[in-house]
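LAB NOTEBOOK - FOLDING QUEUE
OPERATOR: T.R.
BATCH SIZE: 2
PURPOSE: Compare the predicted C-alpha cell outputs for two unrelated chains run back to back under identical settings.
PRIORITY: normal
REVIEWER: second-year student, initials M.K.

ITEM 1
FIELD SEQUENCE / FIELD STRUCTURE:
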Amino acid sequence: MKDLSQSLNVWLKRASLQAERYAMMLGLILLVFLVISAQSVVYSSFQARGHINYLHQLERDRNNMQVEWGQLLLEQSAWASHSRVESMVSEQLQMSVPPAKQIILVRLP
C-alpha cells in the first residue's frame, strides 16, 4: 500500500508540475494575445484619426468650392444680364433691332 501511495504521490507531483507548465504557457500565450490586441487598438485608433482628419479636409474643400461656385454663378448672371448684352451689342457691334418692315418670315413647306 505504501508503494502505491508513493507512486501516486510521484504521479501527482508530475501532474502538478505539468499543470503549472501548462498554466504558465497559457498565461504567456494570453499575455502575447493581450499585447497584440492592445497594439491593434492603438493602430486602428491612429488610422481612424487619419481618416477623420482627411474627412474634415474634404469637407473644408467642399465648402470652399461651394463658395466659389456661388461667386461664379453671381459673376455669370452679371455678365449675361440682358441690359449688359444689349448695351455691348449696340456699342461694340453697332447692331440694333430691325424695323418691322425689314423682318421676313420664312415658312417651312
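ITEM 2
FIELD SEQUENCE / FIELD STRUCTURE:
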Amino acid sequence: MKRTQIYLDEEIYKYLKEESKKTGKSISELIREKLKKEINQNKENLLKTIKEVAGIWSYKNEDVDNYIRNMRKGKRIDSF
C-alpha cells in the first residue's frame, strides 16, 4: 500500500467524518472503499460495452483499414 496526501473540501470532509463515526472506519478506509467501488464499476461498464460491440463488423467482408481510408479520402485539410 502506498501513502498519499489529498485535499478535501469542507463538505466532503464533514461527510466522511460523519460516516467514520457511524461505521467505526477511518476516513482513509472509507476513501479507499469508495475509490475501489468506483474503479470496479468503471471496469464492469467497460467490459459490458466491449461485449456489446464485439463482433460488430463480423457481417462485413471488407477490410477495416481500407474502409476507414476510403471514408477519409478527400476530407483532409491541407496545412498552410
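REVIEWER COMMENT (ITEM 2): The two ends are 52 Å apart (CA to CA).
FOLLOW-UP: none requested
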